[in-house]
Amino acid sequence: MYYLRALLLPSLLVFSLPAFSAEPAPPVVSSLDAPTQVPEDSVQFEGDESNWRLTGGYQWRQIGTVNFQSGTHVTNGFLRQWERRLRRGGSSSRSSTGPGSDYGPFKGAVDRFYRDGYVRQDGNSELTGWTWFWGYDNVGDSQLISGTNVLFHADGGSVTQTTRSFGERITPNFDPNTGWESDLTGSGWFLQLETPEIYQSDSCLLTLDFSYSFAQADDSRQGPGAYSGRHREGGRYRTTTTTTTVEDFYNNGDIGILPSSYQGTFAGQGPEIRNAPTSRTFLTTTTGSGGPLPGRLLGLSTTLLDERLEVDLHTLSLGPNVVREWKRLRLNGSVGLALNIVDWKAQLTETLLASRNGSDFVVVEEWTARNSGTDVVPGIYLDAAANYALTTRWSLFASGRYDWAGGLSGSVGPSSFSLDLGGWTLMGGLTFVFP
Questions:
Q1: Three-state secondary structure along the chain?
Q2: In which region does residue 278 sit, left (phi positive, over 0), alpha (psi from -120 to 50) or beta (all else)?
Q3: Which of 2, 270, 360, 386 has the most CB atoms less than 10 A away?
């Protein structure tokens, strides 16, 4: 055993010497651990146009111009109701005047004086009930009828009634030019799918672009409304006068044909008539007048508006795309059709404020109105874009686009608005080339 170990030890030393004295062998490296070296010239676009491309990213967009025509909930009818609530009461007065002439009682032998004549007692009136002491001014007024009937007129007096109501009178001013205009801008995202080439020439190639974009925008305006008013102290008055006329009719038998005017005396004899009228009639007539009462300035009123418009814009686009490539750089331009789907929401808040005798304005009334709708507006677009390759599959994307489209209109409460679509869009994102 001792000899066996003595022989093995020199043998091992002999075989191991070449290993220490020779050049070290290169390490064996697995192909899985070796780094992949991509030549710089291989990152390019040329030769990959048979694949689909998907691009997505962020966009800033000019949605269009919004024009608001502001109205008001304050109407003349509302102001009249408000004036009635502000009314503070009123007063009434009554005056009367006595008879204009002493036409006496209906019965009895007394002196009677009329506007157009007289019937008085003579010496025998109390015994006979007749008198020759009478007369009239002209036959037209006294109405001598067939020589037998005489009609006299007397002022029976009048009654005047005056009423006054006190409160406030509001003088309104409505501005038809109240409104605002704004360029509506917003942001959102987009997706664009590009087909493989459908035509190729020596200098460029042709593809188709399908795209969808979404942008949100809102705008608002706070400021004075279309109404303002001045409040004055005052009210209205109404005066009514009722006048009474007395008609006494005398039926006297045959007194003959008399001249156009006649004046009998107490002493002299002449044609006789009854001392008391046969009938008496009271006629009334009513006249009136009225108007506003002047007064001092009490205060002012005005409205404040808060108008808002929110827009969600969905756009579907389709058009041909002309492409030119230089290694890492890819330029393209396209023109096509666009379909804009506009979801809008509008809100209006109107506040009526009033100030009394120079004090701070306080809220009198407030109205809120809301409305929404969806409109489809067609249009066209022109687009220029560029890609810069990062790898054979990924590239940076940037684009500038201009849209032309129609318009839409809507309303909210008493206000209306229009939105003319169109403007610039700036987009940025990443493009992926499918294998």
A1: CHHHHHHHHHHHHHHHHHHHHCCCCCCCCCCCCCCCCCCHHHCCCCCCCCCCEEEEEEEEEEEEEEEEECCCCCCHHHHHHHHHHHCCEEEEEEEEECCCCCCCCCCCCCCEEECCEEECCCCCHHHHCEECCEEECCHHHHCCECCCEEEEEEEEEEEEEEEEEEEEEEEEEECCCCEEEEEEEEEEEEEEEECCCCEECCCCEEEEEEEEEEEEEEEEEEEEEEEEEEEEEEEEEEEEEEEEEEEEEEECCCCCCCCCCEECCCCCCCCCEECCCCEEEEEEEEEEEEEEECCCEEEEEEEEEEEEEEEEEEEEEEEEEEEEEECCEEEEEEEEEEEEEEEEEEEEEEEEEEEECCCCCEEEEEEEEEEEEEEEEEEEEEEEEEEEECCCCEEEEEEEEEEEEEEEEEEECCEEEEEEEEEEEEEEEEEEECC
A2: alpha
A3: 270
* Residue carrying structure tokens 């009998």: 264
Tens of pLDDT, residue by residue over 329-372, are: 999 999 999 999 999 999 999 999 999 888 999 999 999 999 99
The pTM for the full model equals: 0.62
pLDDT tens digits, residue range 115-161?
A: 888 899 888 888 888 888 988 876 665 555 556 678 888 888 888 88
- Cβ atoms 144, 191 nearer than 8 A: no
Q: For the chain, list the domains and their CATH numbers.
A: 43-87+176-233+297-433 (2.40.160.20), 90-164+236-293 (no CATH)
